[in-house]
Amino acid sequence: MELCIKDLTKEFKDKRAVDRVNWTLTPGIWGLLGANGAGKTTLMRMVAGLIKPSSGTVEYDNVSIDVLGGSYRSIFGYLPQEFGFYPEFHVQDYLDYMAALKGISRKTAAKRIEGLLQTFSLADVRKKKIRQLSGGMKRRVGIAQALLNDPEVLILDEPTSGLDPGERIKLRNLLSEFATDRIVLISTHIVPDIEYIAASTAIMKEGKIVAAGTPKELLKQVEHKVWSACIPEYDLHKYEKNLRIVNIRGEEENMVSIRYLAKRPVIEGTKECAPKLEDLYLWLFPEEEVE
Ligand SMILES: Nc1ncnc2c1ncn2[C@@H]1O[C@H](COP(=O)(O)OP(=O)(O)OP(=O)(O)O)[C@@H](O)[C@H]1O
C-alpha cells in the first residue's frame, strides 16, 4: 500500500499553489503542516483526484490515479475543508445517501452507519437535521462520511476545526487505531493535532515542502535554538519587539518566564529547552501565531 506523489505542481492563473511536491506515503498517519495559503488544500484536492495537476502524477501502488478512476474512489475517503452538507437532510439519511453514492450495498451501509454513529457520538442526533447541529457535530458527520467505505486512503483537510478539546483527543485516538493498516493524511495549521500521532510530517510553505520527517528529524532544525528565561514583566515589551517569543507565563513578583527562539541565548540566566514541533513551526513561519 503506497501513495506516491511525484513532482506534483498546480498553477492557477497567476499563482503556483503547489510547486513540484514529491512525497511517498505508506500506512500510518502523515501530517501536513502549513500556514494559511501554503498550498495544503490544493495538494490534497489533487491527491483526492478532484482537480487535475498542471504537471506531475499521483500513483497508488504504482498506478496513476487517473488510470484507476472509480476503483481509486472506492478505496478513498476525503473530508474537504469546506464541507458542503445537505442542511435539510437528517444525519442518518445523509449518511445513507452518501453510502449509496459511494456504491456501498444497503446491508453493509446499515452496519457501518450504525458503527460510525456510535463511534462519533452521533446516535442521539441521527434524526436531527444537519443544519440544527453544532459546528463540532457537523465536523463529526463529515468525518463519518469519509469513513463510510472503510477507506484504505483517508485524507482529512483540517479535521479538527470546530471540535472541542475532548473531541480532538477522541479523534486523534481513533485515527491512531484506524491507521495501523491504512494511509491517513491530515492537513492542519494546529501543531498539537498531529504532533503526537503523525509518524511523519511535512511542512509546506509557498507551495513547497520545506521540511519533512519524523518529529525527531524535524526537531533537529531547532536544536540549540529554543531557550527560556525569566524577565521582569516591564521588560517584556522590549523583548517582544526583537525576539521570537513562543510562550509567556506569568511568575511571582512581577516576573514572567518566556520561551524564545534564537540562534544563541540573548538574555542573562537563559536555559536551553528541548524543542517541540511548534517551535519549528514558528521558526519557519515567524509571522504565524501558534495556536
Ligand atoms: N481556484 C483557485 N484559483 C486561484 N488561486 C487559488 C485557487 N485555489 C487556491 N488558490 C491559491 O493558491 C494558494 C494555496 O491555497 P490553498 O487553499 O491550497 O492553501 P492552504 O494551505 O490550504 O490554506 P488554507 O489553510 O488557508 O486553506 C493560495 O494563495 C490561494 O489563494
Automatic annotation (TrEMBL):
A Pfam family recorded for this sequence: ABC_tran
InterPro entries reported in the protein's UniProt record: AAA+_ATPase (IPR003593), ABC_transporter-like_ATP-bd (IPR003439), ABC_transporter-like_CS (IPR017871), P-loop_NTPase (IPR027417)
Gene3D superfamilies: P-loop containing nucleotide triphosphate hydrolases (3.40.50.300)
Keywords for the protein's UniProt record, in alphabetical order: ATP-binding, Nucleotide-binding, Transport
Lineage: superkingdom: Bacteria
Family to which the UniProt record says this protein belongs: Belongs to the ABC transporter superfamily.
Protein name: ABC transporter ATP-binding protein
